[in-house]
Structures are given as structure tokens and as C-alpha cells.
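Hi Y.,

Following your request, here is the sequence exactly as I used it, all 118 residues.
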Amino acid sequence: MAYIFLGISIVLTVISQLLLKKSVFGVVDFSLPLGKLTISFLKNPFFLAGVVSFGLAFILWILVLSKMKLSVAYPISTALNLSLVAIVSYVLFKEQLSPVQMSGIGIIIFGIFLLLWK
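Below is the corresponding structure, written out as C-alpha cells. Let me know if you'd prefer a different format.
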């Protein structure tokens, strides 16, 4: 069950990052004073959904920490979050990934398999 919570936490974290990125696309005017900028974010549905997604991921992460070794859970979470955000950003936002970066993602994923090897 811990691995299921970990997987859901990772997916929610990735979703939150994508929603937060989407929330700043031409929607927010960063030249506004801080108070108005804050209100602008609070009215942005992508921002609010990103915060909720991140909050749910955090709650699941606490459950994961109660059931798994930190030395296993944290590297898996960090590596998959990094890899998935990069891949999905490439697909959704047309962000570029160089061959070296793609190779790095492959190495990271291979490292996760080594970490889980019993």
C-alpha cells in the first residue's frame, strides 16, 4: 500500500507543478504590487488547483513516510518527480530536452530500478 501512496503522491506533485506553470502563462502580471499580485493568483483556477494538488500530495507523502524507509521513498519520489515533470513539460509546454538531458532521465530511471533491487 505504501508504494501506491507513493505513486499517487508523485502523480499529484507532477500535476501540481504543471498547473502552477500553467497559472503563470500570460495570466499573471508580475509588475503588479504584491497585494494585487496575490489576489490575481488567488483568482487563478490553475494556481488554486495546483495548490490543492500539492496539498494532497503532501498528505500522502506523510503517509508514505510512516510506512517506508526515507532512504528508499525520497530518492524514488525525487527522481520520478524530476523525470516526469521534464517529460510532460516537453509534451505539453513544448519545452526542449537535449539528447544529454534525455539520457540523464534514462539514467535516473535506471537508478530507481537499482535502488529497488532486492
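The first helix runs from residue 2 to 23.

Thanks again,
Q.
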